[in-house]
Amino acid sequence: MTTSADLRSLQAPLKQRYRDDPTSASTPLQADGTFDEAGITTTVGSWAGPVRAGLHAATGGDGTDACSGDMLLEALIACAGVTCRSVATAMGVPVASARIHALSSFDARGTLGIDREAPVGVGPITVTIELETDADEATLAKLATLTERYCVVGQSLRSAPEIVVRAMG
Question: How many other CB atoms are there within 10 angstroms of residue 142's CB atom?
Fold first, then answer.
């Protein structure tokens, strides 16, 4: 089990490097996909291997492909879970186990272009983290606030990505 001291020891040299050289804190991330599979799909490389994403049943899919909206929520609970566990460790909050659940919806009318007033996108999103812990309500509230503040994926959802389409060259 990683302790608060272990976490501080792991992160101390990183924090010092980023203080000394703020540009070194810029950390690249990437994801890649292809249209190699048939149908209205995109195959996405993941840590677990390729995942074929396709249309949700609400927009014409047959339900055999991964839903990108579900994948978004999966990325969010992965980040929120790691962040919560890291913050709990740093705070010295003992956690025996956890369950994390993300819930949202989307209005299919928006993405299908049926109603220009219907929103396009997933939201609002609620992430619920249930902890097996003896921490009091004030500590849990602080843990929730700090998890929300430091969750990279959650914070990233505050602004839309730029999408560029260009010819291969």
Answer: 15
Interior/surface letters 114-130, b for 16+ CB within 10 angstroms, e for the rest: eeeeeeeebeebebebe
Instruction: Map residue 15 onto helix, strand or coil.
Output: helix
Element (H, E) at 132: strand 126-132
pLDDT tens over the chain, length 169 residues: 889 999 999 999 999 999 999 999 999 999 999 999 989 999 999 999 999 999 999 999 999 999 999 999 999 999 999 999 999 999 999 999 999 999 999 999 999 999 999 999 999 999 999 999 999 999 999 999 999 999 999 999 999 999 999 999 8
Q: Give the closest residue to 73 by CA, choosing from 106, 103, 33.
A: 103
| Beta bridge partner(s), residue 101 | 128
